[in-house]
Amino acid sequence: MATPFDQLILDPRHTDDSRVRPQSTRPAESEASQSPSLMLLVLLAAAGTVVYAAFLLNPGNRGDWLPYVLVIVAETVLVAHALLAMWTILSAGSNPRGFTFHHAQERLYDLAEILADGAEDEPWLWQIYVEDRPVDVDVFITTYGEDLATIRRTVTAALRIQGKHQTWVLDDGRSDEVRDLAAELGARYVRRLSSGGAKAGNINHALSLARGEYFMVLDADFVPLPAFLHETVPFFAAPDVAFVQTPQTYGNYDNVISRGAGYMQAMFYRYVQPGRNRFNAAFCVGTNVIYRRAAVDAVGGIYTDSKSEDVWTSLMLHEAGWRTIYIPTTLAIGDTPETVEAYTKQQLRWATGGFEIMLTHNPLSRKRSLTMDQRIAYLVTATHYLTGIAPLLLLLVPPLEIYLDLSPMNLTITPATWLLYYAGFYVMQILLAFYTLGSFRWEVLLLAAVSFPIYVRALVNAVMRREQAWHVTGRKGAYRSPFAFMLPQVLAFQFLLVTTVVALWKAYASGDFTLALAWNATNTLILGGFIVTAWREGRRARAAARVRQRTEARGRRRAEADPQRVAAGPADEGARLALVGSDRAPAPYSAATPFTAATPTARTELSTPTDREATS
Q1: Hey, is 291 helix, strand or coil?
Q2: How far is CA 4 from CA 8, 108, 138, 288, in A?
Q3: Which of 69, 209, 542, 560 has the fewest CB atoms within 10 Å of its CB?
C-alpha cells in the first residue's frame, strides 16, 4: 500500500499546464449529484408536488374550513420546502475544486524539505504551504463531559492528521482526567473557568491563545481522517474563502434512534449542501470544518448569542462578503444521537437556533447584505423546522372527521382520487429518499412524524427568548428514562388509539370504512412504534445499569479483601504545564486583540508536553 509520501511522488500533477483538468478527474460525489437518474427522479417528484398543490388549492375540492385550513397550512410548508430542496439538488452539479484548488494542493508540501527532515513516514510533521508560503494550522477539539475513551480516539487521530499542525483540547467540562489525557497524548490543553457562550465562547477563548492562520473545529466525538487538511486547506488559496465545511458522517447506526437521526441528515449532506455551493450559501454545521482566522476576526469571532453558533457565524460571514465551500467528502466520522434524550436535546438546540434567525434576523430584510439566492437559502434554513411541526397539524385532521364529521376535502372526491394525488407528492418523496439513501429507511419517517413536540417547544423558546441550555450529543451521564422526554407523544398516542377504536366502531356500525380511519390508524401505529422503541431503549439501559452496579460491587469487595490494591494515580505533574492569568471570568473574544496570550480578565490553564510558562 502506497504511503502518503509515495502518493506525493507518484500522483500525476494535473496543473503543470493551464488547461482544464480532464473530466475523468471529477470527484465521485460530483458525478453522483449529476446522475441522470437522480435528475429525472427529482423532476418527476417536483411535477408530482406541483400537481398535488394544484389539487389542494382547487376551490372545488375544498371541504370544511377548519380541517381544510390545517391541511393547507401544513402542506404549504411541506410543499414549499420540498420544491426548494429539489431545486437545490438540481443545482448540485458544480465542482468547487477548480484549477486554483488543484494547483495549491499539488504544492501543499515541499518534498525537498520533507527529505531533508527525514519525515517521509511522519506526514503529521510536514509543513503546509499555501501560495508557497508556510502557514500554521490549529486543530480545536471541543469537549464538555464526553467520556475519556471518546476523547482519546479523537485526539489520537487529530495528532496524526497529515500536515504540520497544533492540536488543542478545549475542555469546558474542566476535567482533570481530560487534562491528564491531553498531556499523555501530547496535545495542548485549555480550560476556562466560565462557560459563557457555550461552545462558541470556548472556541473564541482558544483563539485568544492560538496563533494559527487557519483553525479546524472538531466535536469530541468526531474522529478525523488523516487527509482532512490535505483536502481542505488548498481551497484557501482563493483569498475570499472563509471556511471549508465537510459532512457529518456517522459510524454508530446501531439502533432505531441513531439510524433515523443519521439518515435524516444524509440527503442534506449528500445533495442539498453541495447545491448551496452554487449560491455561495453553504453553511457551517459546527464540526468537521476549517476556518480562515482573518475571516472570523472580521466578524468579531464565532457568534455567541445563540446555541446554533455555526449557522449564525456562517450568516455573519456571508453578510460580510466572504465565500464558503462545502465538499461532500467524508473526512471525519462521528456519533449521531443514540437515545431519545440525546436526540431530543440535539433537535431542540438546532431548531431553536433556526427559529431565532427567522424571528430576529429575517434573511429577506433589506438590511441584510445578501444576494437573493442567499436570502432564499437562509430563509429555508430558518424555517426548515416548521416542517417538523406540520405533522402535528395533519395529526388533528382525522379526529375532526371521526368525532365532528368535518372533512378537509369535498366529500364527492373518492378516496382513490385523493390517494392518487397524495401519492404524487408523498410517494415520490419516498422514492427520491429511497434512491438517494440506497434503500427505504422507515426510521426516518418514524422520527419525522413524532418529533413535533420538540419543534413546537423550540418555536416557543425562540418566541419567548428563552435561554437554551447546551447539551453535547455524545455526552454520557446518569440514566434517565426516555419517557421523561416524550410525554406529549405518549398522550398523543393514547388519544389517537381511542380515536381509532371509535372510528372502527363507527365503521362497523355503518359499514363505511373511511379514509380518516386509515389515516388515523396509520398515525397511531407510527406513534406506537416510537413508544415501543423507547421502551426497548429503557429496558437495555436498565440492564446495562444492573451490570454496571454488579461490576462496581465486585470491585469494592476485591478492594476490601485486598487493601494493598492501589488505584493508578494521576499523570506525572512534570508532564504538564499551566498558563494562568487572574481569577476573574474571561472577557469576550474580540477581533481587535486576536493574538493575546492571556488577558487581565482571563484565567486559563494551558497544558503542553514540553514547557511551563506563566503570564498575568
Answers
A1: strand
A2: 6, 13, 21, 21
A3: 560
Please list, in sequence order, all residues whose beta carbon lies within 8 angstroms of the beta carbon of residue 157, skipping any fewer than 6 positions away.
223, 224, 225, 226
For cell 445499569, the residue is: 545
SS3 assignment for 165-195? CEEEEEECCCCHHHHHHHHHHCCEEEEECCC
Give the pLDDT band of residue 578 (cuts 50, 70, 90): very low
Lowest mean pLDDT among 144-158, 173-187, 447-461, 501-515: 501-515
Please tell me the predicted confidence (pLDDT) of residue 479: 67
Tell me the C-alpha distance between 287 and 146, whole Å.
Answer: 15
518-to-417, 513, 523, 524 alpha-carbon distances in Å: 15, 8, 9, 10
Contacts of 71 (CB under 8 A, 6+ apart): 56, 393, 394, 397, 408, 409
- Angle in degrees, CA 468, 452, 447, rounded to 5: 105
Beta bridge partners of 324: 243
**Residue 585's pLDDT band (cuts 50, 70, 90):** very low
Per-residue b/e over 112-150, b at no fewer than 16 CB within 10 Å?
Answer: eebeeeebbeebbebbbbbeeeebbbbbbbbbbbbeeeb
With 0-12 / 13-18 / 19 or more C-beta atoms within 10 angstroms meaning exposed / middle / buried, residue 351 is buried
* Cα–Cα distance for residue pair 503/517, rounded to 1 Å: 6
